[in-house]
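Batch 3, record 17
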Amino acid sequence: MEATSPTLRTPGFAGYVATVRALVRRSRNEILRVPGAAIPGVLAPTIFFIGLTSVFGSLTLLPGFDADRYQSFLIPVSLMQGAGFTGAATGVNLARDIEQGWFDRLLVSPAPRPVLLAGLVLSASLRALVPAVVLLVVGFSLGVSWPGLGGLLLAVALTMGTGTVAALYGVTLALRFKSQAAAPLMQAGMFILVLFTTAYAPMELLQDWLADIARINPMTDVVEAARQGFVGGSVSWGETWPALIALAAMIAVMASLALRGMRRTSY
Amino acid sequence: MIARLLLNLRVVAALGRRSVRQTFRRPQLFAPIIIFPLLLLAIQTGGAAGAVDLPGFPRVNGFLDFMLAGAMIQSTLLAGNSGGIALAVDIEMGFTDRLLAAPISRFAIVLGRLAGTAALGAFSALFFLAVGLVFGVQIEEGVLGAALMVAFVTLSAIAFGGLGAAIALRTGRASVVQGLFPLVFVILFLSSAFFPVGLMLEPAATVAEYNPLSFIVEGIRDPVISTLSGEAFWKALAAITAIAGLSLGLSGLALRRRLRTGG
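Prediction for the assembled complex:
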């Protein structure tokens, strides 16, 4: 009897899509089966939004402040903050999977590393919609101006993009440290990226040192683009394209770092 | 009697030292106490500095003078929360059970944790004081005022640490204590930690006016922005005493319940 040697089949494109879908489904199940896991990512930006509006609301009285309502000015920052928390949570969850050995099982599967990364990141960008929806409902009920359909869709798309950046950053750190102890680093990184912008006031009213940082921080363009509908009531291409380029650049840099981490991870 | 007291003091000191070392070794415990309040202080000072020009804002040399007390109290609240998380982890891992079996006073276990939290409070006060002085804060009451700030922050750490310890002893679960993290910010935003009450929007302004945390913050802020007033001093001391009394009482009750029910 002739012995047959086992053949290793490489999954094709359909297999890759199925892998990504399975990882997204796993992430969705986590939200549905452990609702408490999503609460910090929703609660923190919502508390910050309501709290900061109550505390700093009278800043709009300052000459040069280009918004009538502080809640309209702040809502895009809170959306990005929510996406940042969600992305950081992806990193923490991956670190947990590494600690518990689940990620090792993923690595021995025939799925290529970029496909695994795509699954993790797509899950995060979709999960960023959870805090976004809550924040928008809370925001509109507290008097946030209607940004128009275009403004709203743009803000949601930029939120998902920021969620992607945050997830890639979280994954990079999780693969580097392989421990949930790196969680504060993941959260602090996104905290700095989102808030060292024109988060609290227009550029002209920031102190010089913060204005200098905000000018070179690519997230400033993203915040400003997401803000235009809420504050100005309309969306212009001139204010949108810098945000798209900034997001694309951040995603490209972080994705290459995350992929490098994935390739270096052995099993 | 005295020998027993000395033994318990040694236990409190040893557990306090362990608590401080634990915090500095674990980024999850250290970051909320120093890193996040420092980042928020920088962002708020740089972003909302123009607020000092608003009508009704107290006369200050700069916005950082006003914000320093808020950063200190934020750090202290989070130190209390981190202390509670660490105590709950000790309970989950069985370390507290081993202490309970030792021939020492049961309440010394709680006091040891609080001694550690107090030390962290003092460290945080000195750290933010140094940051403030480096970036140009002028303390109107001078050295005496600075010493009073450190004292208030340290005492506040004991008061807030007691609340964290009470919840840790009652639930025995680190995730529950960690879940209180957002609540810390609710309490902070509903106080005068970051802005004068008179310039806050309603209903937050009314809540902040009666929030005991506002009294504590004003007591810490007063020596920085003006000459020390007796009213701010006594209000801060009364608020700290009330919260400390409540939290230590709750800790005692939670410890007694844990000993009675075993969990």
